[in-house]
Amino acid sequence: MTPIISVQGLTKTYGNGFEALKGVDLDIKEGEILALLGPNGAGKTTLISIICGIVNPSGGKVLVDGHDVVKDFRRTRALIGLVPQELTTDQFETVWNTVSFSRGVYGYKPDPALIERVLKELSLWSKKDNMIRELSGGMKRRVLIAKALSHEPRVLFLDEPTAGVDVNLRREMWQVVEKLRESGVTIILTTHYIEEAEEIADRVGVINGGELLLLEDKKTLMKKLGRKQLRLELAEPMTSLPESLAGYNLALSEDGSALLHEYHGDEAQGTVPSLLNRLAQENIHFKDLSTRQSTLEDIFVALVGEKA
């Protein structure tokens, strides 16, 4: 299947010599939710800005539905909706008017039925006659999404969509994103909230220093790079590990009250039973055990740390 967006050898060097992107290759599948993670200055916003036609690349190219974003700007821009991080709406305009105006910016004829549907899907219909300044922060973000959807784009970019909103509003926004995907819209979001990517993304990309360090299916990523830790609370504290346990990836807690064993999830059937049998043979007893799965945040920190 041809990707809806294809980024090929993309570079961007600003006038002061700063390399914001260093040969990024990225294919985005139609209908997926892709989360782009990375620290400030990693290149996320530059990448989005080039795809959306806001910034010109220094090298490489970007295709949207097979069309070059530089050579066929108008056609590709019409396929894309962009929701910026900043709340850049006219505070003294009504919700209805500002969303309708956005549709006209792209040269589309008025379509009140479409605007009504978009506002209802985003739970904004009851606020259609309210001025933007009267809305809560969460509602203002919904208006930005409505503006981006007013010309029926096939791709939607969300730049930090839940920045500065509380946990409840964040989860409401996740539901909105899922509904958009169900309607066939391809969604690319940048986020600082690792749990956001973990909750709603199909694939995860990690950017740092202008390079795409990793692009992987979320579930595959967790399986490949995620680690588990088995903690065994000892019946009697130990001062050191016996030599007979040297073959296992074991560590003793600082106070000597627990054994810590790290392993990949697919190793559990072999190493864990073997370890427990060995402990029984050595007459080492434990009173409790627990496991901890590494999170996407652990993986992200490890990847970014390696490139720091």
TrEMBL record:
MF GO annotations: ATP binding; ATP hydrolysis activity
Pfam families reported for this sequence: ABC_tran
Entry keywords, A to Z: ATP-binding, Nucleotide-binding, Transport
Alphabetical list of InterPro entries matching this protein: AAA+_ATPase (IPR003593), ABC_transporter-like_ATP-bd (IPR003439), ABC_transporter-like_CS (IPR017871), ABC_transporter_ATP-binding (IPR050763), P-loop_NTPase (IPR027417)
Highest taxon, organism lineage: Bacteria
SMART domains: AAA (SM00382)
Residues of the ABC transporter domain: 5-234
Protein name: ABC transporter ATP-binding protein
Source organism per UniProt: Neorhizobium lilium
